[in-house]
Amino acid sequence: MGWTEPSGLDDLLIEAVFSAGAHIGSVYVLDGTRQVLGMEATIGLPATVARTWARVRTNECVPISVAVRERRLLWLQDRMALARGFPAAALALPYDFAMAFAPLCSGGAVWGGFVLGWPTGGEAALTSGRTRLIEDVCARIGRLLHRASERGRPVVPGPLPRILDQVHALRPGQPAGLTALTCLNCLPEGHLYLDAQARVTLVTAQAAEILDADPSQLIGRRLCKALPWLDDPLYEDHYRGAVVSHRVTRFTARHSDGRLLSVECFPGVPGVTLRIVPAAAGHEAGSSDAEGRPPLLGLHEMLHLATCLAQAVTAQDVVDLVADHVLPVTGAQALAILSWESGRMRVVASRGYSPEGIATFNGRPVVHAVPWVPGYQWDRPSFYGTWREFQRTFPTAVQVDGMSAWALLPLSAAGQSIGTCVLGYDRPRRFGEAERAMLTALGGLIAQAFERAWLYDNKHQLAESLQARLLPADLPEIPGLELAARYLPTTPGMDIGGDFYDVIRLDDTTAAAVIGDVQGHDMTAAALMGQVRTAIRATASTTATCGEVLAHANRLMTELAPDRFTSCLYIKLDLAARTVCLAGAGHPPPLLSIPGAPTRVLDEVTGLLLGIDPAAEYGTTVLPLPPGSVLALYTDGLVEQRGLDLGDAIASLAARFTPAPDRPLHELAEALVQPATEHQRTDDTAVLLLRLEDGR
Question: Which domain of life is it from (predicted)?
Fold first, then answer.
């Protein structure tokens, strides 16, 4: 009998959990962009926890992302190990358990990630047997995902993870369930069984009597919804603690009639058995006031979101993080952050709205509320359960993408409005008091993150614009000299850089080139970059030698910015004599490739950094430049790598710098910087290539 990919995946996941003696297992699958991991299936995790971790970005600092990104098995033996390596994740999961995270690989590609969890204790160790089991299961699941993709039926995670149930997996017969209920009814205590979704699947007669509830009103419903007096984050935390840590937890709850009940949570895989008895005298309720607390995003989800938002840099980062963590929990289908310029709306970032819907927002006049709507205040969150309610407040609004309910969360900073966060729902909705309170708190988190992102976006755009204007738009055309340049800014989210380069045509047979790096990653560095480049260009057009050009720039730097240093390399090419004169100021040495000879590192081109000693002198080196020779000038961003000696990095660059005579320089420049595009860059990179053509 055949099986589809998801059912086969389920079988492998369940088999792995029980074979490894674990109590938690999850499978993540990479989406089409290969930037997001979606939880496809899980067993042993509470549904609320699974929803919180349903979508994880591969560049996030969380264990499963690191395991997938670095293609390695990651073992965290206890809560302290999690806190040391991943403090944000530890804040969101403050429970005692050990976990293993591994990539799912097949055919040389990564298809997703795999997670197993164990209770902490003497048996919570990554033994060689468990390692072999994890490797075997990961290989099998990886092959399954690979085959499914090749057949054109890739496994695609749904909006929410599938919660596997041990009872359904083992398929016990109906008589066994009746027998178990009969046995439990013989005990004096009350017992309930909650499945992985925290729904009641079994309730004994004694439990119904103690809870003063009709069993038919409990079966199939989440206990906290069937009994509102149990709808409290503190009680929810005890339930989660039992499931995730796989340890018995206990708490005392106050019944709506005032009675105190003692509740014990006995974890299974998955689900929890509750034992309920009247509390002994002297016990106090674990929480006496659950009214008004948000039932959708609990304390730990909110803390987890807050820690993630603290790392957001751009407005789109804010929207992506909120959408990943909030939309699956709140049931909203779309989210957007709106701002306004000159009386017109602008969509800063969005998720869930169609491009046509975004176009409907962008550029429209700001929609104002009518003044006579009771209770409306522009600086307070507002909620509209139907289109009619929304239109009553905003008569000129346009319904976009068929949304039928909205939550509008104003975003303000220092008393000034900076935008609005819009949550859209595709069907009418009744916003209860608890949900309104939760969304209001959420708006505060988003406002803080968006303010930082808004300031960063404006500052970074200004700096990038300045930097782009200071770099040459085009390289000059010089007969007998082929030129190519490539510039890589820092990764979005990092600071701006101070790298610069320039090529100057001096006359028909002479040209100069310069490359440098101003210390710092800010607006001052960008401004100094322009001043140094201008000073060198002005001096180069005189009869000054290469050393004199750098000496003049050095004196200027010590006057303009005595607290800043600049590395610089200046060269002058005589195309008629086929020679090059070089002078350096603390810059990485250039490379020289001559046809038929190994690439040479010109490390004799040395000198003091600009801006240290105004009286510094700079020596020059003159070298022959046979036809076909290629010079490579670059900044340290091309070679600096954490943990790698700079000299070894330059030697490695020289080894792979082998320009073929018929290969265009622009292709070679692209190949040189390609490795730097594959990871986050904390420094910018500039490369300038010059080839003496055979025509002269």
Answer: Bacteria
